[in-house]
Fold these 3 entries.
Entry 1:
Amino acid sequence: MSSSFYEATVLSVHHWTDRLFSFTTTRDSGFRYQSGQFAMIGLEVEGRPLMRAYSMVSPHYEDTLEFLSIKVPEGPLTSRLQHIQPGDPILIGRKASGTLLTQNLLPGARLYLLGTGTGLAPFMSIVQDPEVYEQFAKVILVHGCREVRELAYQDRLSKDLHEHEYLGELVAGQLAYFPTVTREPFVNQGRIPDLLGSEEFFARLGVPKPDLAGDRFMLCGSPAMLKDTVAVLEAAGFVEGNMSHPGHYVIERAFVDK
Ligand code: A2P
């Protein structure tokens, strides 16, 4: 086995829908990552590692790792991965990377985490990191899905985190969770780029309309979602950030689609 991966063990599996599941695994004590990063994970198939990029759902300080995945019937990896059971081996890359890091953003007052589908994953990690609440007065997590059932981690976000021993107070005071659904009735409806253009969205959040001085954005979703959301941000003058030049927003593709 290549030394760039290690073998972890699946601890639990949760099937949200017939298209979406999540699972937890053991964590190698040497595996380090920052909130919002991803690693290569996969399975050994016909004697060879079949690996894809997955964002960590779990915060960087957790003893176990958690991942969120779609299931594609014909997908080389997910058609197999969706059948994993507690006790099964799983391969995890030793190196984490990614652009959804607060250090790639200029300082600001509000941080928007805008994700569709499994693009929620890196933001789960970020909203469980106490540091983000030191850097931003308000953290606004928007998760867009087709159906209500696909709003993974809804209970954790709207309830469990509020009761968390260390994070509870920070989350209660500073995190706004705004789930939105596009293909059935729900309390919040509409696609993310459209929400960004609606006065009502900001009024409901109780925040001013975004401006260059105060607002920062992280985006994670399909290529189409990223393109349309970036277009809205760029039209308002927001500039993409990276390692060498922090900016107003950063983007990452929600990886696995096979
Ligand atoms: P819609 O139902 O209107 O297609 P998917 O499961 O296909 O990845 O979609 C997840 C969510 O992303 C859905 O709510 C979907 O809305 C939305 N979506 C699809 N395309 C875009 C886009 N170009 N910009 C923003 N959101 C999008």
Entry 2:
Amino acid sequence: MKSLFVLLIGMLPVCLPAQNKPAYKEPFRPQFHFTPHHNWMNDPNGLVYHKGEYHLFYQYNPVGNTWGHMSWGHAVSSDLVHWQHLPLAIPEDDKNMIFSGSCVVDKNNTSGFRQKPGQTPLIAIYTAHIIPDKSKPDDYLQHQHIAYSLDDGRTWTKYEGNPVLDLNKKDFRDPKVFWHEPTKKWIMAIVLPHEHIVQFYSSSNLRSWAHLSDFGPAGDTSAIWECPDLLQVPLTGQAGKRKWVLINSQQYTMQYFVGEFNGIHFQNETPADTILRPDYGPDFYAAITYNNLPVDQDPVLLGWVNNWKYGASIPTSPWRSAQSLPRTLRLKKTGNIWTLLQEPVKALQGLRGGVVEWKNQLISGDLTFPAKGQVIELDAELIPAKDDICGVRLAVKGSQGLIIGYDAAKEQLYIDRSKSSNTYFNNEFAALLHSAARVPLEDGKLRLHLFLDKSIVEVFVNDGTTVLTVQLFPPSGADGIEFFSQKGGTRITTAKVWPMRSTWK
Ligand code: FRU
């Protein structure tokens, strides 16, 4: 009898229905960012809106918590905030790992993959990473492949005519494809990483591709280029007007160019001496935007919250890496330069608990805010005193905390994570504890709109003109919030803090 009891108890975790598993409660587990239930994730892939669902595919290792066996994981959401995990979408096979790429809705069946009336093919265009001789993993090739789904992304078939684009090159990857209405063609942006070139191709059927033009080298060429995206972004204050933005990643950071695209060439209008970054923190990479959004919806950007320098050793288990909050995009002109404005999607406001608010507080030294939490949204407006160094500390416990500071003399916003967490798990992480961006005040004011979600902070400065994303690994119970003004005299006009509900119940 006793042994039967022990046997039954031993089987319990296996027998429990999936929804009873106490998941998403582990140390450092983000509560309102997307993370896979378990195992390694990197780039967002195939972002596409279709029949009321936002699809998120992502670079995923189905068998481990470090990079490898790359395949496309899959989740869907109706609001970009609550996600439902779906089975692995496109697995690696004997010959190919499935690297980054994009997804399109082939409404007019240009690809010819439709089999029955009423089906709308979804087509994934991705890089097949091929290692012909497994004993020489560095002798690889990268070809572009496609796969199609006739059941709204639930199951996928790899096209038997692959590759659809092959330059017989080692490094040639990350195709982003979209429909270009004026030329009635599919356009692909894809990188030659070492050459620092984004190439453009066009196709009428997604199966055969013609080279159109090249862009680059330009801007930041200090590291290999990856994950390009070309899209139209609405202009603030000019209803109906848009400009083209070309985004790409450079191994550990990202940049973008603003200009025009005529269906063949991208004409850059960002001055040659200006480098624009969608994010100035160390933990935002490989970001791309959604295809096929409803016409009245602004573009939505999603990026991988991690860094190749130390990503494989961040102290999280049984998963590694998150996707950023989805950010809506607009362009604003400052002087003669168009810059991106990024705003977290409005649906996040549905997660807010009761607000705690301060109004008109003068700060001198440190001032503890009357709310706490490691899962919060904070929206504050400060009037920094002349030459002050001021800001807010999060995840505070004793002398520990993440500093989000403003150096008024230097007009610089900085994040210092040196006292926020365990930094010894990786030397590269320990060497990247400070990040900064130039932020001029607007009418003497600094607006800090930020989200702390256990091990991620995303800071949207001055209405999203500048954004910084940073990972931290604070001890449990480090949940204080503290404003500071080193010289004294900085004023907080308003500061609101909301506890945020978890989306992983
Ligand atoms: C970017 C990247 C891509 C590649 C993928 C492989 O983070 O290196 O260039 O397709 O990750 O996982």
Entry 3:
Amino acid sequence: MQETKNRTIAYAVLTLIAMGGLLWLSTKNRAVTVDGGFRITMGTVARILVVAQNQPQADAAIDAAFDKIYDIERLMSDYDPNSQLSLVNREAFEHPVPVDAELFEVLTAAKLYSCTSGGAFDVTIGPVVQLWRKAKDDNTAPTPEAIAKAKETAGYENLVLDADNKTVTFKKEGMFLDLGGIAKGYAIDKAVEVLRSAGMQGAMVDIGGDLRCFGTPANGKKHWFIGLQDPQNEEEILLKLNMDDRAVATSGDYRRFVMIDDEKHSHIINPATADSAQDLSSVTILAPTAMAADALATAVTVMGDEKGLKLIETIDSTEAILISHGDETSFEKTSGVDKYTDYD
Ligand code: AMP
Ligand code: MG
């Protein structure tokens, strides 16, 4: 009798433990999708979406990721006179300027992309960018003399990076760095690092339409997706891309341009001519990191379709989708793009 009672109690205890275990497992596996909403940074709008175990954890991770983005903006903005980049721009011709590891990392990568792209991507193009920005305000195109003068200091070989001391020096007076073609991508990657180490199961970080996704997709979906907008018709989606563990960046004159005498000038400068790069309406790059996607999108816009596609074909796990100017929307792409449009 006693034995039966003991066995019953033992079964009851075991059942309770099993039920408790199941309950623990189900809470553990339950994920919430939290949208951090739109926040202004780097002259545009950013948004972070995370998949997490619970709302408080998600909220804290989103705030930490945005703090990282704001830190990078404070380091790398050429608009902010108090940024570390502005200090470099003011003093690097006079003496080597010590910089934070993150700024040094971006400058090192920028030089590498300059080499890979044969100088199409070049952060020393700053004075020419400034000239076109001013031209927009004055509604007058810069004179050939002004362009020639601004171009004089450009050239990534004039940017000296000392890896041992983490210092930056300019070889020419009047040099000016502009990280507008790469810093957004870097900030996205750093925000992703923060979200991963905060234990997020998945996330998407979007700064001005350039973005990176990882892990579990939002709202119980099978994949992270993005729709590539048709530059001729903003309502239309040209291509739907699978974005699992991937970054994407788009450069294009349909998104940002300088308008002078009703003529559109791209905000991207061809360092070879110091004129705006006009050939392509939009360049989208898919890559493992957002920094690579960002820099290469800018580079390919300058290089044009033939050279640009050729370059991207040589880079591992990296693809390009190019849209030319014209009445009808047609696009060219590298051979591996189809991998990302194949989903179910
Ligand atoms: P994105 O929208 O990423 O293509 O970046 C465009 C921004 O990059 C411009 O607004 C400039 O600040 C900067 N930029 C323009 N031309 C170049 C270039 N040839 N190489 C690197 N950065 C550039
Ligand atoms: Mg870019």
